[in-house]
Design brief:
By secondary structure, the chain is of the alpha+beta class. It has a single domain, classed as Aminopeptidase. The protein is built from four helices and five strands; from the N terminus they run E-H-H-E-E-E-H-E-H. A five-stranded mixed sheet has the order 1-2-3-4-5, with helices on both faces. Strand 2 and strand 3 form a beta hairpin. The radius of gyration is 16 Å and the shape is globular. The chain starts with a strand and ends in a 17-residue tail after the last helix. InterPro entries: Acyl_CoA_acyltransferase, Bact_Acetyltransf, GNAT_dom. GO terms for molecular function: acyltransferase activity, transferring groups other than amino-acyl groups.
Length: 156
């Protein structure tokens, strides 16, 4: 396996693998997520910006995993402590390559990237129904910080 930073040449394969992710999150939460295509411009921006990256994993010429990460800062509100952090927007490993340590290695790569960017911590979100991802993140040292709740409005 080769772990690397994506270039714009990788976008077609990134887009195909990202589609696996969008299908999966749509299956888990169809009321909130569409099974839709991401725009090429989004991937280009993540690759070309100095404050974001797409980390990739290839088996030969085939893309089998990716993580989209971005350097962010806490909002400039009086109640927030000021922090610079790495936000992992998405992490996906193609189905046939799961449970082989690829996601754990990607998380290590994210931590190294965050360290190089002088981020204080890494933050990510995970769907409650995605138990495998939740367990992976906890097993690699991630802690729960906040829970988002929602309630549908009853139509009377």
């Amino acid at each position: 396996m080769i772990y690397d930073q994506a270039t714009t040449v990788d976008i077609p394969q990134i887009k195909a693998l990202y589609q696996e992710l969008t299908q999966r999150i749509h299956e888990l939460e169809p009321d909130f997520f569409k099974d839709a295509q991401q725009r090429n411009s989004f991937f280009e921006e993540m690759i070309l910006s100095k404050n974001s990256d797409i980390l990739i994993v290839k088996d030969g010429a085939n893309l089998v995993g990716l993580a989209i990460i971005q350097l962010q800062e806490t909002p400039d509100y009086p109640i927030f402590e000021k922090h610079t952090f790495c936000y992992c927007l998405d992490l996906v490993v193609t189905k046939d390559y799961r449970a082989q340590g690829i996601a754990s290695k990607l998380l290590s790569q994210i931590e190294e990237w965050a360290y190089q960017k002088k981020a204080e911590y890494i933050e990510l979100s995970v769907l409650n129904k995605n138990k495998n991802a939740f367990n992976l993140y906890q097993s690699t040292g991630f802690l729960e910080k906040m829970t988002t709740l929602y309630k549908k409005v009853d139509k009377k």
